[in-house]
Specification:
mainly alpha
Amino acid sequence: MTKFLYMKILGLFMVILGFSYCLTSFYNFYDYIFGVNYIANGNIWIMGIGLIFPLFTFIFGVFFYFYTDRDFASINPFILSSGISLLIIGISRIFISNGIMEFLHFTFAYVLIILSLLLIYGCFKFKY
């Protein structure tokens, strides 16, 4: 019971936070496209790639919320690798503030680090 409750709450947090940061990132992106914000030496295609990260968090949260694994003996490598990649993205956003990461809010890095650590902890604790 604890495993499923932990999965549902963590998945719900990932969906809500991923969606809210998607709205923030796309709002900043459209401000840049329509000329409200000006970023020196900005490449729209490179910065647009950075919008994939909050979108991935939202989509992975939806997947994680509805996902139930019946095999309690092994860890799912997709969930573990996604948690590690979210951790790497969060750490890289702290140190990189231009280029791909231009439209991501700075607090998104801390949210990603916390969510990924909770995800990795759940992988080893509850074996999903």
